[in-house]
Amino acid sequence: MPNTYSQIYLQLVFATKGRETQIRSAIKDEVEKYICGIFRNKGQKVLAIYANPDHIHIFFSYKDLRINIPDLVKIVKTESTKFINEKNLTSGKFYWQEGYGVFSYSKSQKDSVNNYILNQAQHHQRRSFRNEYLDFLSKFEIEYDDRYLFEFYD
User: How far apart are CA 36 and CA 60, in angstroms?
Assistant: First the structure.
């Protein structure tokens, strides 16, 4: 019986509500591991993840096409929010901001995207999240309306 095969590389980016710096270094690893578990449970493979204090980058291999991207993102955001709040990992209630960016890459770009995500701390010493995100939209030729972007406070 024939099967379905795919190999799609995606980078997912989303931010904390109000761009609050809630993902402190003390909880960063725990949040990243939990999110990787969500992806694994949904048949996906995280290749690189980096939780900045106010936004997150997740590079993953989109393998199980039975779940669509909007549903996967909703599950990741909902389950990680519940986890963070139930474990009281932040001071006050934690929420992710609405919306997200998802960008596709070829296999030949895999290593450079991995490195880019794993070096977020150094990257954001030189560049704001706003500029980074706007560059993604430009690079991928995505038309957007400023009114519907993340809340930026740079």
Answer: 9
